[in-house]
């Protein structure tokens, strides 16, 4: 975090290192108000401003689960890496008074009127226990969420700042950078399995699906989807995405290709196709993908550098891994191919610079690189040994040229009928 490194606490019912000695009242106060039993304030990385909306019944069920359904683990809490004076907790009390709702006001907001019970249920899950806004809403100078609910204005769920090098996109109705082109069925499939015909979960969202949303009931998933679809676009000027075949024609024709086009053919087209349509839901489309067109390119750069794994779920047990290219592509090459992807097939996002890639590559430490999410009974897997480093450049090589052997003029990349078939995700709205 901007103030240092924060380590999550032990919330198993171990009586020495965990929460085994907490009463239910103390537990509820920590969840809703962010106050520990000793009176110290919790850092708002724990989303108590959202959890304040939760019902007494749900909090009682949570307490019963933690105390009786989780095995105690005698693991000491690791000290936070936050320097003094930022490590002092008493200013957090003032933060809580200013930015966090009281449990009374939060419950009143949660019980506001909705057109249907389904929308009310969806709002409760998204705004409360789901705490979607903790990542997908921008934060202010004091690291507070600029909106906690849809009542607070269009900034709610309009996209957040990067978390560990992944930029959460808008969950509102923008047709290009949000969920405007997604249906309720698309959303429920994504929350249940981490994949659909329009995209796949990766990074922190893969973990959220793996540990969380895949276990929700169909009714709750549908309620969340309908609530999200009810949120209008924050950027009302954004136009519908329209497919543009120019990039596909250039890739298939070969000949004089740009560096970005050739790097795409050499490294990406086998899975994502010259049409950018991918082979969804296994390999997601890049054409019309909201993450690709996000104003911030961090997520796209990150996944090209380090790769990512879409882990299996109960509804979709297959796991798919995209390899990282950080050890074989230079910063300039990553910038070129990502810029091509953000400009191709009707995508209209800004170009990516070599400095953008270098900055993110420097930030990608082993602790921020994705690993297989642990289960409640298995230990966490070992982290990768190091972040990807740029390949050594041959000083005799002109790095403005493609790193691979160029194809002869008129080269036609082979493409079977499945590659050439129109893809449903490519259709204009």
UniProtKB/TrEMBL annotation:
- Renumbered residue ranges of the record's region Disordered: 366-429
**Which of UniProt's keywords are assigned here?**
Cell membrane, Electron transport, Heme, Iron, Membrane, Metal-binding, Repeat, Respiratory chain, Signal, Transport
Task: Give the main localization category.
Answer: membrane
Q: Which InterPro entries match?
A: Cyt_c-like_dom, Cyt_c-like_dom_sf, Cyt_C_IC, Cytochrome_c-type_DH, Membr-bd_ADH_cyt_c
- Compositional bias (Pro residues): 373-391
Record-annotated Cytochrome c domain positions: 117-232, 255-345
Q: Which domain of life is it from?
A: Bacteria
Which residue ranges have biased composition labelled Polar residues?
394-407
Protein's recorded name: Gluconate 2-dehydrogenase, cytochrome c subunit
Q: Which organism is it from?
A: Acetobacter malorum DSM 14337
